[in-house]
Each structure stands twice: as C-alpha cells, then as structure tokens.
Design goal:
Oligomer: single chain
Shape: globular
Strand content: under 5%
Strand order of the largest sheet: 1-2
Radius of gyration: 20 Å
Length: 353
Amino acid sequence: CKNFSNVFEQLGKDLRQFWLGSPMAGQASNPSRDVPSLLVDKHADYVRSFSKIWESTDKIEFVATEHFWMSGMYWGLSAMALLGRLEEMDLQAIVPWVLSCQHSNGGFGGSSRNDPHMLYTLSAVQILALCNQLDLVDADKVANYVASLQQSNGSFVGDQWGEVDTRFTYCALLCLSIIGRTSAIDVNAAVHFIAKCKNFDGGFGCTPGNESHAGQVFTCIGSLSLTDKLQVVDRDLFCWWLCERQTPSGGLNGRPEKLQDVCYSWWCMSCLSILGRLHWIDQKALTDFILGCQDDEDGGISDRPDDMADIYHTFFGLAGLSLMGYPGLKAIDPTWALPSEVVARIKARNTSE
C-alpha cells in the first residue's frame, strides 16, 4: 500500500501547480516582476516611531488603538528583535509602562485605562520576556488570574464578560508556559476542548462547530504543541488545507475564497513549520508577496501591496520571512511566537527554578 503521507504530499503539489499556475516551491511565480529586498532600516525607523505611543497624544493612533497598545508593543518589539535591533527601543521606558497596566487581579489591560484581558496579559508577559525582565512578574498572581478564566469544559474566556475562543486557550497555555505555571490549570481539559473544535477538513474553529480559519488553527496547533498533544492533528489532511490557502499572488488567505493577507504568512506557515511541512508551500512566491507589501518610503509592511502599513502586518510579515529563513533575520519559534533565542532563555530559566 502506497504511503498515505506521500499521497497527500503529491496531491498538495498537484493542487498548488493547478491553482498557482506556477513552478513548484523554490521557483519564482513571476520572474519578470522586480521584487525589492527587505528594507531593514526603514522598518526599524517605522517601528521606533511608535515606541512611546502613550505619549503621542497628537496622533490618531493614540485614540484609535489605545485598547490594544499592549499587543502593539509586543508586535513592535518582536519585529525589532527579529531585525536584530531590539536595543534601539527605549526598554527602560517600556518595561515600567507594561507593569503600570497590571490590575490587582493579576491580569493586564491593553493600556493602563483598559480592563484586564487574556490577550493583553499574554502580550505583557511576552514583552517582559523579550526585555529579559521576567523577574518582575509575580508569576503566582498572573497564574491565578489566568486559571480563573478556565471554564468547566476546559475552554477559556477572555475576560469577565465571558467570550469563549480558542485564542484564549493558546494565550493561557503560552502565558503559563513562559512563567512556568502550567500546573495552575487543567491542561487535559484544555486539550479536550481544542480537540472538539477540529473540523472535517482537518482545521479548527474558534469554538466547536465553527469553520476552520487560519488564525484559529494557529492557536489550536500552538496549544497542542505546547502540551505535546500534536497527535490530535490529522497532519496531512490539515496541511493540505493550509496549502490551499496560497493564492496566485503567492500570498496566503485565511479561508477559501478570501483575499490574501500578509498576516497569514505567520498563521499558516507557523503551523506548517510545527508539523514539518514548510516545503509544501511555494516559499519563493510567498517571500516575493511579503516583500512587495513593504512601504518603500516610510517603512513598515501592509496586508497587501499598496495598502497602508501597520505594526501588526510588519511583525507578521517579518515573522513569516523568518520562518522561511530569510537572510539577516533572527529565527522565530513557531509555537511560542518569540525569537528562538528568547525561548531558549525562558526554558533555561524555568528549568533552573
């Protein structure tokens, strides 16, 4: 009987060739197009311009983005870390600001004026890990907050208002993994909930019965990777679904019949990396797509060519390039969504405690 994995791998290649109308991985889809190189200095300047967003009261971003400043700071710092320019950020100002956003229950808000939430609690812990300041974290206090959000079916809510989403399961598991407190929650119940979110196409939704989405599948695959439960995944079927996310532009989309978007360079490619299937994607075409989304005047990366750049897509574009081994970028861990050298430092710290 022919190896099942080989059958799916060949099927994935055939489908890519059919839909892309291009050569296989490693060859340019449109060799006549002039693709720019990575604009490292411009991207670093762009990210630095937002390094103290809480002081920029004259910018529209101050008003429009305050509720997710914490995640924005994580995206920006991580982008700078991948560029090898983290030391150019004002970490002495950023760390106290992060700590000022913690509430008495242990959770962090998107800013000091916003309520605590699972998303921003993870971002805060990730920032402190990037800055090598985890000693400033009251691990038990944060762990108690995270544990308080786990539900009886193993799922997690994002905050006191009760929204359930697999994003929050990943946030909980990664946050507690960083601070070495996964024992604070029922890990098996969390994995059981993730398994219930698996769909017929191999992907995962935000809750049981919801459609597969590339952003959601990352949170589920990341959760299963953190808990060493990847056997839950139908690897070949799932990775085939991920490969179908590549469009003729070379970029990836999040669901069938949707537009490509730079951010899925991370959401899809991280899963393929975790599962050992990065070679199933036309990486040259994807690299060209990401580089084509750069703002060559002001720096930053947008969702699609000629759109306005933002911090979110800048980080995830760089993260996608890093996963594909783009020259000059530091390696990123596909499960922890942090530079590999930072993850190694975290693991060494937790082992020594």
